[in-house]
Design brief:
The complex is a heterodimer of chains A (294) and B (266). Chain A is α/β, with parallel strands linked by helices and 294 residues long. In chain A, α4 links the parallel β4 and β5. The radius of gyration of chain A is 18 Å and the shape is globular. In chain B, α1 runs parallel beside α2. Chain B is built from nine helices and eleven strands. In chain B, the strands form two sheets. Chain B has a six-stranded mixed β-sheet with strand order 1-5-6-7-9-8, with helices on one face. In chain B, β2, α1 and β3 form a beta-alpha-beta unit. The longest helix of chain B is centred in the middle third of the chain and has 16 residues. The N and C termini of chain B lie far apart (51 Å). The chains are: A alpha/beta (294), B alpha/beta (266).
């Protein structure tokens, strides 16, 4: 079944491309698009029912981690959907940490005391850093939950509190859901976290993208003209690959889309240029953003 | 053509200087006292400190062989920012203040000299082929932190560059990884600011071929109070002086990985 899926010839997409220069980051779409929340701006339209991108089998994850280690990966990210819905999330995160620094992107609602204890133990026992990124879009519960769903704000705050209590330093990730400036949003979130007992807040801001539930029908595409003189190796897709159901993809937020699929087989087979074919590529180019931590 | 590399038994390697001339002078004196065969610096001569031009004569007079860092590239080319690789707004705010000040206080002849520096240096240390770079062999501003640099990556970097020992700086915190028969990687630390550990000294690295590789991190004490006062006197942010005085990083720390961040105060 997997072998019948298309791997698009780049020229067929008619899009400019980004070269592949090395595997800095392996992204693992662990939960597929299975999530206990259904956020209005979700990049891949994740939700609790019939995920269009299936969770990964543990064997696929293990094979990807082993291949990535052999290929010199620098860091590994677990995402979804909500990774902690996956029954083997904690053990797979542990296996990943044996190989490289590992980051988990979570909405926090499933980070119970037991999960927080387990994460703290993994962080303590690993030679590499474990990063937990908790999504919190606004300091106001009503604003946040209008986008992320009832209970999302409280769940994220509880997770942050549990992690901080165990000596972990979660990175609070906020998507731009208001019209305020970056510095204003940053300072506001920073001050809020201090007020909630987070002594050393770490904040990552993300723009919204024209895809998933927020696609908005944008028709803007990158062109060779728009990219003239631009160093394409600064784009995330020149240094990352994503293992998800049914293939290896160029970009974490385009995982599962045919145009971003670079291989239906090995990770190494996806080490080739990526087509900059999607409206979301315009946002990456303009904002210089990366899904990575730094 | 086969390249003939300098062949030494003991060398001193300095990381980022960050316009900290008194620390550089102290490190040079210490290394001389230990009878090293040669001294190297892995770049980022400017930043944070009050008198960027004062480091150049020290390096030249001591015969320190310097390769270029991201700061040096930017200053030489007159770029808009330091190219440090920060992503956080607060980090970038302070980095920009530091960069603009450094650019404006670096003489044109020194800017031109920065433009002549090599990206990498190689040396033969006994049986060990040593490659020196700033961030990593593949990117001048790549951060090779101890907790985010896996063995698999180090093995690949060494193999790709035909080296047994990889030396880098850029992060500001030293570390050494023995890859158990597959080489060594050493982040040599920096001279420009302390290590975010409440100590005011800075560090450089001694490498010896005995014939096995011996890596020794050397603490360097200097008149840090005078340096901090100079930072304040020229109007640079008091946060820069606070770091020099306390040993805790106050700026440019948002990109620290969890492990390294947890060790700090802020």
């Amino acid at each position: 079944m997997r072998q019948t899926l298309p791997v698009w010839p780049l020229q067929a997409l008619g899009a400019p491309t980004a070269p592949f220069v090395g595997l800095d980051a392996l992204w693992i779409q662990l939960a597929g698009t299975w999530c206990n929340l259904e956020c209005a701006h979700c990049l891949n339209a994740s939700g609790p029912r019939d995920p269009w991108l299936k969770p990964l089998a543990p064997a696929v994850v293990r094979a990807a981690i082993a291949a990535a280690e052999r290929l010199g990966v620098r860091e590994i990210y677990f995402t979804g959907g909500e990774p902690f819905l996956h029954a083997e999330a904690l053990s797979l995160i542990g296996e990943s940490l044996a190989v490289a620094a590992t980051t988990v992107l979570t909405n926090g609602t499933l980070v119970t005391d037991d999960v927080a204890d387990a994460l703290a133990a993994l962080a303590r026992d690993s030679r590499y850093s474990l990063e937990i990124r908790v999504s919190l879009d606004d300091i106001e519960e009503t604003v946040n939950d209008a986008i992320r769903g009832a209970g999302a704000w409280a769940g994220a705050l509880a997770a942050i509190t549990r992690l901080v209590a165990r000596g972990l330093l979660p990175i609070v990730t906020a998507t731009d859901v208001t019209a305020t400036s970056i510095s204003t949003r940053y300072d506001r979130l920073h001050q809020f976290l201090v007020s909630r007992g987070v002594p050393r807040p770490r904040v990552k801001l993300m723009p919204t993208f024209a895809l998933g539930r927020h696609s908005g029908g944008s028709a803007e595409r990158l062109t060779e003209t728009a990219l003239h003189g631009f160093d394409r190796t600064t784009l995330q897709c020149s240094r990352a690959r994503v293992v998800a159901d049914a293939g290896v993809y160029a970009c974490p937020i385009l995982a599962g889309l045919d145009g971003a699929r670079l291989s239906t087989g090995s990770l190494e087979a996806a080490f080739r240029p990526a087509a900059l074919y999607h409206p979301a590529c315009v946002t990456c180019h303009q904002s210089g953003m990366t899904c990575a931590n730094g | 053509m086969i390249e003939t590399l300098p062949d030494y038994r003991r060398v001193a390697v300095f990381g980022g200087v960050y316009s900290n001339a008194p620390a550089l002078a102290a490190a040079i004196a210490d290394a001389r006292g230990r009878g090293v065969d040669a001294m190297y610096c892995l770049g980022d001569l400017g930043g944070f400190g009050p008198w960027p031009d004062r480091v150049f004569p020290l390096l030249r007079e001591a015969g320190v062989r310097v390769s270029r860092g991201n700061y040096d590239e930017s200053i030489a080319a007159g770029l808009d920012d330091c190219g440090c690789g920060y992503a956080d707004p607060r980090d970038n705010h302070y980095a920009q203040i530091s960069y603009v000040y450094t650019y404006e206080h670096t003489a044109s002849e020194h800017r031109a000299w920065l433009g002549t520096l090599p990206a990498h240096q190689r040396v033969q240390l006994g049986p060990h082929r040593v490659l020196m770079c700033h961030g990593s062999p593949r990117r001048v501003n790549e951060f090779l932190w101890e907790s985010t640099t896996p063995d698999g990556l180090l093995r690949q970097l060494l193999a790709d560059n035909a080296a047994d020992v990889l030396l880098c700086t850029h992060t500001g915190i030293k570390w050494h990884r023995d890859l158990r028969g597959n080489g060594h990687a050493v982040n040599v630390g920096v001279l420009g600011r302390p290590e975010n550990d409440a100590r005011t000294n800075v560090w450089y690295t001694l490498l010896s071929a005995e014939p096995d590789l011996r890596v020794e991190f050397v603490p360097v004490a200097y008149d840090h109070e005078s340096h901090a006062r100079d930072i304040e006197r020229v109007g640079l942010p008091i946060e820069f002086a606070e770091t020099i005085r306390t040993g805790w990083w106050t700026t440019c720390l948002e990109n620290l990985p969890a492990r390294e961040r947890a060790r700090g105060r802020f």
